[in-house]
Amino acid sequence: MSRLKYKWLAALFLFVAPFCAVLDRTESFAQSPYGNDPFQQQDPFGNNISGNLSANPFMTDNAQQDTTARDTTKKERKPLESYFFDNETRAQKNFAWNIDMSKNRIRMTTIDTLLTDFQVDYPFLKKGVGDAYLGNLGAPSVPLAYYDRPVFRDFQMAQPLYSYLYTPENAPYYNVKKPLTQVGYLTAGQRLYAEENITVLHAQNITPSTGFNITFHTMGTKGIYTNQATRDTDFSLGISHNGKRYTGYVGYIFNTIRMKENGGVTDDWYITGTKLDEAFEVPFMLSDAQNLMQNHTFYTFHSYGIPLRRLTDDDFSMAGVPAIYVGYSLQYDRWHRLYTDTYAGMQAPDPDGGTASNPLPTSPFYDNWYFNATASRDSTFESKFSNRLFVQLQPWDRNGIVGTVDAGVGVDTHHYFQFQPEDFLSGNTRGVNRNSFYVYGAVEGKFRKYFDWNGDLRYVPFGYRQNDLEANASAKLSIYFGEHPVSLSGHFGYSLRDPSYWSENYYSNHFIWHNAFQKENETVLDVHLTAPTVNAEAGFYQSVAGNKIYYGPNGAPRQASAPVSVTGIYLRKDFRIGILHLNHRVLMQWSTNQEVVPVPLVSAYLSYFVEFDAVRDVLRLKIGVDGRYNTKYYAFGYNPATGQFYNQRETMIGGYPMLDFYVTAKWKRMRIFLKVAHLSQDFFNTREYFQVLHYPLNRRVFKMGLSWSFYD
């Protein structure tokens, strides 16, 4: 293990030790968990009790009391009294959530133990209609839906890898009655180009309020095609305490991604015009290029609640009383990226384009070799240290019409480093430091189960990114027909933000730019109608972006001179006829300027399957076919040197139906996975299976795997 990793572990231990030591002291201020609340009629271990059992467990009149000596020095374990969780949530055996580093809130999530979408093994294909990607696991991807495309304001190079990364906002936390361990393993293809996906999760509660979890995930492939190997490894450690007044989280995240880069095929003809027996026979532009990206994140979050009236035995938690919460959060991120290649490893161009049976590129993959004519070694580094102090007012009831009102201040310290031309002479390695100060606020509330609303605002009054502004407002109205809800939700957002540092400042062997872009602005409106009982959903979104920054056909960033409008309509309907399920997701999109914001007109994901109990309450089977399709459009290109998708106008891509056949099963606590990916290869008299310019999807391959959950 490197010295850097030892330093991280030492720092983590020094921070966690005092954190754990104060838990019992802090909770000593909380009231007794037992009172008149019906939920309190359970002991700390979840056993039902009725009144005060004392030494007469059967509560019979005039019964003889048990006079056996008891250990009165043993401390009684407190139940989970946190204001974050309602009685229904506490009653669950296991549940999970994510934290909000800016506000004293959480977002409930699910623990994946079902067969639902278990056959979807690529993480970027699980949401909506999926992503366009380079063809293999571990490679960059970009969502087909414009509203799902991530925007990384910090370390933009990681944006195409968003679906693999752990962050403090998506790292899960767990509360489990018994220790939970999940182990998953998936493999595909022959050993020569095998693909594998390994996940290990362990979550355990020390007390009902205090727990920890460790998640390790590694995935990658040796590559079906030349120089296509990837290896993504992610690690997350989290410690949480959710007490009656005090809440605390400490976490550490490590992400590392290694990708060999082949630059795409030398000519699409090798995929569409001929059928080579072996995938490794297909020639690609780069043979020894690769990207390495690493990220370390340490974060901690603390809040303490002060009730505005005296707590009584009836107050199981502080969720139902007026209160003020004071909190602090800290987050440190560091990113490093290294790109390497050689001139000898680049496919030599032929001005005549080669021959009909052996086409070659007519121009070099990279036009410029600024600093070294034989090899590249481009390194970039970025770190950010964030401190936030906030208060949250709970005027009446946390679930009231005005549930919480938040206000906070934050300071971000940014550090950027890359070699610039003058550094080769001066030896400067100091980098660039920038600081920003911002204020933010939020409010949210609800009326029973019928109406939810919230709003938030963030503004940078001075420093780096001065006058940046983000504002959002959302509301949800639910109408119930008996026990069947129909919900109408809407969201409005406006943002004004400085460009990413790397879109304005970049020096490398192949690309150099120094831009002075204007602030980007975007107005977003979306509306959704959902009816869970009939498995139906309809959505509409509208986005108007001004001064939009994008990467042009030459691979360098540009800024649009006119606003761009993007409109989308999303439809989802799942039919069920006995054991037969017919699930449909369809997205239609229109862009007023495809050169700035390219989107396919129609994207669809269909899943048809049968699901039934092969052995009742023991073995459940799911057998089906998944299909993905989008209409032709000028899809993205990808440049390994910058690690970014760019807008190309060379070739329209799409119109290819991608089909997968699968069988999944759940046997007690084990889920089993069998799949023939890209079943449709050679089915439709076309081999145009591209989603990104010159990057073919993988050939047909058989996959298998399992996931096993342990609860002890």
TrEMBL record:
<keyword id="KW-0732">Signal</keyword>
<feature type="compositionally biased region" description="Polar residues">
    <location>
        <begin position="56"/>
        <end position="67"/>
    </location>
</feature>
<feature type="signal peptide">
    <location>
        <begin position="1"/>
        <end position="21"/>
    </location>
</feature>
<protein>
    <submittedName>
        <fullName>Porin</fullName>
    </submittedName>
</protein>
<dbReference type="InterPro" id="IPR025631">
    <property type="entry name" value="Porin_10"/>
</dbReference>
<dbReference type="Pfam" id="PF14121">
    <property type="entry name" value="Porin_10"/>
</dbReference>
<feature type="region of interest" description="Disordered">
    <location>
        <begin position="56"/>
        <end position="76"/>
    </location>
</feature>
